[in-house]
Design goal:
Two copies of one chain form a homodimer.
Chain A: H1 9-21, E1 30-31, H2 34-41, H3 45-57, E2 61-64, E3 68-71, E4 77-83, H4 86-92, E5 97-109, E6 113-125, E7 128-138, H5 155-162, E8 167-176, H6 179-185, E9 192-202, E10 205-214, E11 219-224
Helix pairs in contact in A: 1-3, 2-3
Chain A binds a DNA duplex through residues 7-9, 33-35, 43-47, 49-50, 52-53, 63-69.
Chain lengths: 228, 228
DNA sequence: TAGTGGTCTAGACCACCTG
DNA sequence: AGGTGGTCTAGACCACTAG
């Protein structure tokens, strides 16, 4: 038995990936079970399981009890996008962060109801407009927000420490700068604007709904398969 | 000992999340070690480890040997975006997919070198332009592409099964439809266009570089914390 | 209903890092 | 230098589901 030994799950993961890329295992094909692989690799089944679960999380493999493990037919690539706090996003670029509250008043929101707070603000990088924030906060869920001026600290930042969420919806889209938005962002009317709409929830109650309109030139960068 | 028992890692994960949301453990705070938690939860340390690793992957916790585990100070939310094959993306919307090759010729690309293939094509949903694909393929890495007409099958689809990649860079941005692009997409000049630039690699060799320009109205939707 | 992955356990050793 | 997380093991039982 001169079988090479694979003693940790990362090595097993790499070997499985190698076989897929070398077409020893092709998409759609069922690969050997964990017991067989453990024997072949000379390790415990739990170690194989660890490696295979990581690959299944990444979308490379599809696993089902009884049916076994198959190489994914449509490798729906999963890209992980980091959604940082705006302050940090600006400071990570080596720029100086500044914040300016534009408006703050209570009102009625179609989804959040009557007890809602509407806050608009501008985040700047080196005193240049970076992103315009248009936010509604549910005061029923986050009553403390009613006592916050949001002049020194942005709602973006305040909410993180005062109203943790359990889940959120995010939508990325492209839009055109309207006249009003163009003035806020110091851009020309009709310029392309990257827009992020986000709703965050505490269980089933919506905490806040925000639209972030980024100044022209903004990009979101991410990687795929980088960690595997 | 009337301690509630947490017998599986999901239950432990839920309990940890509960304590964070209930502010029993606040951001920045070091939480008890795995041995202590295992004793408290009445389970094995490996089970606690499983739960904590999942939370660390999600960005909720920060773990370091010797230093211990802390609640993340800046919960850099990680949103997972699925990047499906265009055909599937259209069919998932209940629309009929169709594809039309626009141009195909070899040429020189500044990054891929002289042995490159340039392919432009249009993907349609119910015969309406959906996304314009502008792609370069490295023929040194994927020589089989030279014999492919890309008339019946799109390069987007062909590459998946014929040139698996190990990693990729992705950039999302917003742009304005130029005159030429507007004609391709059956849109008006100056309309907002969502753009995805992607470069995929096989180890250190770039396989393909593609720009996908989506017809106005396109959105990418994703969730955050949905799986936790 | 039988086979496969999902998970737990108790113990062990190791790698890393902070103090 | 010592404490913490990272990982492996051998064995066991359970949950799901294809045939």
């Amino acid at each position: 038995m001169s079988q090479p030994q694979f003693k940790n799950w990362q090595a097993i993961q790499a070997e499985v990936l190698r076989r897929i890329h070398a077409r020893e295992w092709v998409p759609g094909q069922t690969i050997p079970g964990e017991v067989d692989l453990a024997r072949e690799f000379g390790c415990a089944r739990a170690t194989v399981n660890r490696a295979m679960q990581a690959l299944a999380d990444a979308g490379i493999l599809e696993r089902r009890r009884k049916a076994g493990t198959r190489v994914a037919l449509h490798p729906v690539s999963k890209a992980t996008v980091d959604i940082p706090v705006i302050r940090q996003e600006i400071e990570d670029r080596g720029a100086t962060y500044s914040y300016r509250l534009i408006n703050r008043k209570t009102g009625v929101h179609p989804l959040l109801g009557a007890n809602a707070l509407h806050v608009t603000a501008l985040h700047q990088a080196d005193d240049t407009p970076f992103v315009f924030e248009d936010r509604w906060i549910n005061l029923t869920v986050a009553p403390d927000a009613a006592t916050q001026a949001f002049e020194a600290i942005s709602a973006n930042e305040w909410l993180i420490t005062h109203a943790p969420y359990t889940k959120g919806d995010i939508t990325f889209s492209a839009a055109i700068a309207t006249k009003g938005l163009a003035e806020r962002l110091d851009a020309t009317e009709g310029a392309p604007v990257f827009v992020i709409d986000r709703t965050t929830w505490d269980r089933d109650r919506a905490i806040t709904i925000v639209r972030l309109s980024y100044a022209p030139g903004y990009q979101i960068h991410t990687m795929i398969g980088g960690t595997i």
